[in-house]
Design a protein that fits this description.
This protein is 78% helix and 0% strand. The protein has 295 residues and is mainly α. The longest helix is centred in the C-terminal third of the chain and has 29 residues.
Length: 295
């Protein structure tokens, strides 16, 4: 059976959120063993080392095309490597976990809004499906008590996390139109180089903090290798392909499924229970994604 571009993009988006959902489990296991910004820098350095094994000939061959797309690649590298995770970690220092989760799941709706602003007409069903999936996500992060959302107190970290959600939405628009002859190998390699250079100052700041920790044990090594190869190299590669094949709006809708997968992985790997809240929110999220695809 021949897969349509949207079907291919959906598969790549599902692979992305599956990997990123698993990364939450790894991050939780690594708490107290390695400082977050250092973990971020180490994972992208591993990604860089792996790319070095095969990317340079491709980058050299495609450099003439890459130069025409360099502003977009630089923007993508700054967002994906040096801003997205550090902003999340900084936000976490001044706000609650529920606020972080609540704001993070608004990213797909920002993708829809950004696409509309940039002239891509969005169907009524896309807006309806987005709102249904968003409601399911809110229901999940509030643990089924939507009244908790009314009592939330917002802090500086919430503004930072909101900025994080918005810049990821705009990141997803960067790769809508990739020049012919430019591969993901070249894009990801150049993104990683740019992002690592920009990330160094924040890592230096973290090392100077009294709370800095870096325990070179088996858990830390596993965390760095898993997040470097799976979460940085593979997941961002898949996400870029999801946006190229299915478009940012459809890929963003599938992004809503990440809380559901996170709950499933937490159940199987660290024993967290699945409750009726997870089931109801999962049905709403999946239903919203399905609704958004209706013509």
């Amino acid at each position: 059976m021949d897969l349509t571009p949207k079907m291919k993009g959906s598969i790549f988006a599902l692979l992305t959120i599956a990997i990123w959902s698993g990364s939450f489990i790894v991050a939780r296991l690594a708490v107290g063993n390695i400082s977050p910004l250092s973990l971020g820098a180490a994972r992208w350095f591993v990604c860089f080392l792996v790319l070095l094994l095969f990317a340079l000939p491709t980058v050299k061959r495609e450099w003439a095309v890459a130069k025409t797309f360099l502003p977009q690649i630089i923007a993508a590298g700054i967002i994906a490597v040096s801003l997205y995770a550090p902003l999340t970690y900084i936000a976490a220092a001044t706000t609650s976990a529920i606020n972080l989760s609540l704001i993070a799941v608004t990213t797909p709706i920002f993708i829809v809004i950004a696409c509309a602003i940039m002239g891509e007409k969005q169907s009524v069903n896309t807006w309806i499906g987005s709102l249904i999936a968003l409601a399911g996500s809110f229901y999940l992060v509030s643990n089924g008590e939507l009244s908790r959302l009314l009592g939330l107190k917002f802090a500086v970290g919430d503004i930072i996390m909101l900025v994080d959600a918005i810049i990821f939405a705009f990141y997803s628009l960067i790769f809508r139109k990739v020049p012919k002859g430019l591969s993901q190998t070249t894009i990801l390699f150049l993104m990683t180089v740019v992002g690592l250079i920009c990330l160094m100052p924040t890592v230096g700041w973290e090392i100077m903090q009294p709370s800095f920790v870096f325990k070179l044990n088996s858990l830390v090594i596993f965390s760095i290798l898993f997040t470097g190869i799976a979460c940085s190299l593979m997941a961002w590669w898949f996400w870029n392909l999801a946006v190229i094949h299915a478009g940012p709006t459809h890929a963003g809708m599938i992004y809503y499924g990440m809380p559901v997968l996170s709950g499933v992985f937490a159940y199987f790997f660290i024993g967290e229970p699945i409750t009726s809240v997870h089931i109801i929110s999962g049905l709403l999220i999946i239903g919203g994604i399905a609704w958004s695809t209706k013509k």
